[in-house]
Structures are given as structure tokens and as C-alpha cells.
Design a protein that fits this description.
It is a single chain. By secondary structure, the protein is α/β, with parallel strands linked by helices. It has one domain (about 15-35, about 45-60, about 75-120). The chain is built from five helices and five strands, in the order E-H-E-H-E-H-E-H-E-H. The protein has helices at about 15-25, 45-60, 70-85, 100-105, 110-120; strands spanning about 1-5, 30, 60-65, 90, 105-110. A five-stranded parallel beta sheet has the order 2-1-3-4-5. Strand 4, helix 4 (about 100-105) and strand 5 (about 105-110) form a beta-alpha-beta unit. Helix 1 (about 15-25) crosses helix 5 (about 110-120). The longest helix is centred in the first third of the chain and has 13 residues, at about 15-25. The protein is globular. The two termini are about 15 Å apart.
């Protein structure tokens, strides 16, 4: 089964829940970095957080990135995946994408369902 890394803001629980269900229905395993939840206690754990995220991206076949709101971590994860030649499927929620997001995106979709559907075409 192919694996998709769920990049997105730390407090985007609804996105992660929906994306996990949609990915499962599309025969993809969702890799949620928030299973290592450091919210409220990131100080002193930066290396552990970033190394874990990078390892998860390396072990995934694609990245689904929620750019519904600006988020530095999501931007860094998308850039890393792009530079690693991993497909980056972007979900915007209808927000206008930043030029850097457009640059790294393999595909851009306003709807999460369409973004996950794009995974099946990889």
C-alpha cells in the first residue's frame, strides 16, 4: 500500500481526520506526523520533531499538504518533499496559493476530496 504524509498546521484535526479516511478509501496509508504530538512543548525537541517528520516524508510515496492557512512547518515539509522528488498534492480549501506553493505543487486542489483523488493518479 502506498503511503501519503499529511502535512498541515498542527491544529488542523478536521483536515487530518478527513484526509486519513479519504486516503484509506483510496487505498493509501495516511502518515500523520501529529501522532508525535509536541504541541505546547516544542522547545528543546526541535531536532526530534524535524528528524521524525523528515523520516516520515522519506518513507512516504507522496505528500498531501494543507495550505488552507499559512504555516511554516507545512511549507518546509512541502519544500523538502519537492526537493526529494516526491509528489506534493496541495489542498488549499479555496485560499489563493502563494507562488512558492504553486512552484512545489504537483497538483493544486481547493477540495480535499479532489486532492486525495489526485493521489490515485500518481
Amino acid at each position: 500500500m502506498k503511503r501519503v504524509y499529511l502535512a498541515g498546521p498542527p491544529y488542523a484535526e478536521e483536515y487530518r481526520r478527513r484526509a486519513t479516511t479519504l486516503a484509506r478509501n483510496a487505498n493509501w496509508e495516511a502518515v500523520d506526523p501529529m501522532r508525535r504530538d509536541f504541541r505546547g512543548r516544542t522547545s528543546g525537541h526541535e531536532r526530534e520533531i524535524v528528524d521524525g517528520d523528515l523520516a516520515d516524508i522519506d518513507a512516504s510515496d507522496a505528500v498531501l499538504a494543507a495550505f488552507t492557512h499559512p504555516d511554516e512547518g507545512t511549507a518546509m515539509e512541502a519544500w523538502y518533499a519537492h526537493r526529494s522528488a516526491k509528489p506534493v498534492i496541495v489542498y488549499t480549501g479555496g485560499s489563493p496559493p502563494h507562488p512558492w506553493v504553486v512552484y512545489v505543487a504537483t497538483a493544486l486542489h481547493a477540495d480535499l476530496e479532489d486532492a486525495v483523488e489526485a493521489l490515485t493518479k500518481l
